[in-house]
Amino acid sequence: MKRRLFLAGCGGLLFQGRQALTAQQVKADMEDLIARLGSRQFQAREAAAKALAKQGEKVLPALRRAAKTSSDPELRRRAASVIRYIEEHPLQKPNCVVRDLGGSPFRSVAVSPGGSTFLWPGNRDKDYDVHLAEIAGGRPVRRFHGHGNYVWTVAFAPDGQRILTGGQDTTIRLWNAATGDQIHCLRRHGSAVTGVGFSRDGLKAISVAPGQAALWDLSAGQCMHVLTARTAMLSAALSPDSRWAITSATDGSLTLWDADNGKELQCLLKGRWGEQVFCVAFSPDGRQALSAGQDHLVRLWALGTGRELRRFAGHRGPVLCARFGPDGRQILSGSQDKTLRLWDTRTGLERDCLLGHTRPVAALAFFSNGRRALSAGKDGTIRLWNLPQWSKQ
Fold first, then answer.
1. Quick one: 331 exposed, middle or buried, by C-beta within 10 A (0-12, 13-18, 19+)?
2. Among 328, 326, 325, which residue's Cα sits nearest to residue 309?
3. pLDDT in tens, 174-196
């Protein structure tokens, strides 16, 4: 027994030593980055500034010392610049689990425009309902019953008065959010509906199933156009003004459509097999779009020219979901690597890496104020996140 205790004690000392060594290395790396702020090479200075900015508040004490005591005026100036950036863009990582179903994967999540409630599709055995609950405390508010099989996707109308759902039973259903009554049951697809979305005015919608995407007039409950690709579709989105639609397919292609007549306008990305695009979305002003997929990247597109503007690289696995923030200046993405990453749309800078999910992140939703977000994971949890705030300059 004494020998076992002695060995355990030695193991503890060795472990503590490794922890101390790691902390020393982190400190040395930080000091090295600060020293590079004074480099004569512009790229080295920029890389150091970005790396320090990603660390957030924890590097402020060292930066402040450098800005005050360094003999290098360039280093002092750059350190002061990074300090201002971090102070204007504080990183906040607290998150809490608002729903935990013990490992049953979540497929979709949506937040009400007022930010007080959230939606998710049932994910337990033979739970074909859609659930509405309060954000604070998670108290159940309402269930929407009518689908004949599992629900894959949910969305709130911009005014919060209706919700749209789609599922394995091949139907899209429009509901009264206040009463739970079904308004329309829309049928056009021959396979499971995997995505739905509203236009900004709430009068039109888009749905996607492996065989096709469809555009809907929600007032009449009628299908306006069917969009068909050369291969099975994976995702679709409708522009805020309802003029355009964008779709992705299993061959990695990304296509822009005229939503008024259902005609193809432009192939933004021809793609390759094995590089599937899992997610597409329009910016709030409708001038840009994003795509995310198998290649671990989020891409930003200019719709006027069809040009790829920027790539956001950092995920270590396929990107399964991505959304623009309400002001269009930030993008949040979720990946098979179990992380969410927050990006600056204008610079491409990764502002935060959010950790907490233990399995891939399947879906996410911004709050209307852009300060918080929900994420739904294949670990059976829905998590609430506080997000860094952005300078208005």
1. buried
2. 328
3. 999 999 999 999 999 999 999 99
Q: What is the pLDDT of residues 365-389, one digit of tens each?
A: 999 999 899 999 999 999 999 987 7
pTM: 0.75
CA 214/CA 224 separation, integer angstroms: 8
CA nearest 280: which of 313, 264, 314, 303? 303
Coil vs helix vs strand at 68: helix
Q: Are 279 and 322 in contact (CB under 8 A)?
A: yes
Give the residue with greater pLDDT, 332 vs 3.
Answer: 332
Let me know if domain 95-386 sits in CATH 2.130.10.10. yes
Average pLDDT over residues 94-112: 83
Question: Which among 107, 92, 89 is positioned nearest to 153, based on CA atoms?
Answer: 107
CB atoms under 10 Å from CB of 254, counted, come to: 24
Beta partners for residue 166, in sequence order: 153, 172
